[in-house]
């Protein structure tokens, strides 16, 4: 076993074998938005219900045949949000998940998103905003979510070939974790904008 480990380490060191792990991604958002459900659906392929996230979940997840990311899923309740900043170091991307049905909390979500956007440690970190639970007929549409979060002017486009200029890559995708709607597209968008 030692010989195999040494051999593969040597191949990685000289660049012949590449690790598939592309970066470290934070799953952030208010409680009950679907972050932990998404993480474990990506990990296991199964839909599960979870209680409130009390401790960070750390998993390695393959989001495509050529891209694996380390995901840190942080709780969204008020006490957990105070600790988000402790995880900002060496972050490659952020998934900010919003419950698109919960209009009463959209201002709270906007405030937390703006705390992320104004943090200097995250100035160039790409952010994908997932408006989740669109399988519910009362979910807000994309234009409303964009306006309510006040990010319309910050969006960089879904299909734009990003040159990583001065503007941080940021886009909204309307999703449904339970129906697998737009999950792959939003994560592909994020993976293509992660600098490694």
Automatic annotation (TrEMBL):
GO cellular component terms given for this protein: endoplasmic reticulum; Golgi apparatus
Annotated positions binding GTP: 29-37, 76, 132-135, 177
Membrane-crossing segments per the record: none
Source organism of the structure: Naegleria fowleri (Brain eating amoeba)
Places the protein is found: Endoplasmic reticulum; Golgi apparatus
GO molecular function terms noted in the UniProt entry: GTP binding; GTPase activity; metal ion binding
Signal sequence, start to end: none
Similarity-based family: Belongs to the small GTPase superfamily. SAR1 family.
Binding site for Mg(2+): 31, 36, 53
Protein name (Swiss-Prot/TrEMBL): Uncharacterized protein
Organism superkingdom: Eukaryota
PROSITE patterns: ARF, SAR1
Family matches, as InterPro entries: P-loop_NTPase, Small_GTP-bd, Small_GTPase_ARF/SAR, Small_GTPase_SAR1
